[in-house]
Design a protein that fits this description.
six-stranded antiparallel beta sheet; four-stranded mixed beta sheet; 28% helix; RVT_2
């Protein structure tokens, strides 16, 4: 907790002032969590001071809040690109990123619980910079980081605005941003070292290290290519939904069963069903083999029946036997884009609609 408050002092985040009579004073609270590595081991304990931003009023306490973040598809494209260009990807993160971003609005917060000034107990902190929990904090941080990169010769992506490109002669440096996590790689390794030095000169950063765990994706970079999986996340899901025991199945969906509305079936808990579907949808980032059946089961979230729950549990039993499955991006392969499409022609039992889709390699 003291380390967190020391960050506030170093970044000149706030100043203690008498409580203004006409301003809304936002509460603060401490949030504690353990930071885990890709194996689930505790790396370090973290304490974060968070503003209770739900007290803010739109138009008074904040205006624009939208901040773009990298999509998982963009991360996968970057991995494929690094294989084709044959360069290694690295990762860094900005320590207490939001504390570096300047906010335009007047924001006052209460003194942190347990760290009140005895000589000035009724005073409040006026913010010069953003704090986690404030509605405008993500937007302010994105503006701060993107303007810094643009000033240093980077070009922002037109489709993906979290991608920044730096070119020097024939060499190219790619930088992808997800809030305070940054992954990057270059055709010339010296560009990566210069970028790391540039960031450390402006922000307090973690050490540059090889990319191995990002947004729940376990990433292994080797001579043959890049392998990504979500085995840690899969194990957590099996434990969460109590499907650690029991037999496994070889396919995610029974080929002889058609899933329909089943209006005469017995209803099941909607919130649990939706939770299972949402968890599985995130898993499809590295498991396209379950994508079709998960999307099929997702159609019945408004009124799930026992037959639908059985189909979802079958997916989990399939995952139990295939925990280590993932995606492999081989090096020195042809980088041509191939697309396939298909349709099942009136395959829906309820309304005879066709399901069509496409896949790109």
């Amino acid at each position: 907790m003291q380390e967190e408050l020391n960050q506030f002092e170093r970044n000149d985040v706030w100043e203690l002032v008498p409580c203004p009579p006409s301003q809304t004073i936002i509460g603060t609270k401490w949030v504690f969590r353990n930071k885990l590595d890709d194996q689930g081991n505790i790396v370090r304990n973290k304490a974060k001071l968070v503003a209770q931003g739900y007290c803010q009023e739109e138009g008074i306490g904040y205006d624009e809040t939208f901040a773009p973040v990298a999509r998982l598809e963009a991360i996968r494209i970057l991995l494929a690109c690094s294989c084709f260009k044959n360069f290694k990807l690295y990762q860094m993160d900005v320590k207490s990123a939001f504390l570096n971003s300047i906010i335009q609005e007047e924001v006052y917060v209460k003194q942190p619980p347990g760290f009140e000034k005895f000589s000035r107990p009724n005073d409040v902190y006026k913010h010069k910079k953003a704090l986690y929990g404030l509605k405008q904090a993500p937007r302010a941080w994105y503006d701060r980081l993107s303007s810094f990169l643009l000033q240093n010769g980077f070009i922002r992506g037109k489709v993906d605005t979290t991608l920044f490109v730096f070119k020097k002669g024939q060499d190219c440096l790619l930088v992808q941003i997800y809030v305070d996590d940054i992954i990057f790689g270059a055709t010339n390794d010296s560009l990566c070292k210069k970028f790391s030095k540039l960031m450390q000169g402006e922000f307090e950063m973690s050490m540059m290290e090889e990319l191995n765990f990002f947004l729940g994706l376990q990433i292994k970079q080797c001579q043959e290519g890049i392998y990504i999986s979500q085995s840690k996340y899969t194990k957590e899901l099996l434990k969460k939904f109590g499907i650690e025991e029991g037999r496994t199945v070889s396919t995610p969906m029974a080929t002889n069963v058609k899933i329909d509305k089943d209006e005469k079936g017995k209803s099941v808990d909607e919130s649990k069903y939706r939770g299972m579907i949402g968890s599985l949808l995130y898993l499809t980032a590295s498991r396209p083999d379950i994508l079709h059946v998960v999307c099929l089961c997702a159609r019945f979230q408004s009124n799930p029946k026992e037959s639908h729950m059985s189909a979802v549990k079958r997916i989990f039993r399939y995952l139990k036997g295939t925990i280590q499955y993932g995606l492999f991006y081989p090096k020195n392969e042809n980088f041509s884009l191939k697309g396939y499409s298909d349709s099942d022609y009136a395959g829906n039992i309820d309304d005879r609609k066709s399901t069509s889709d496409h896949v790109n390699f």
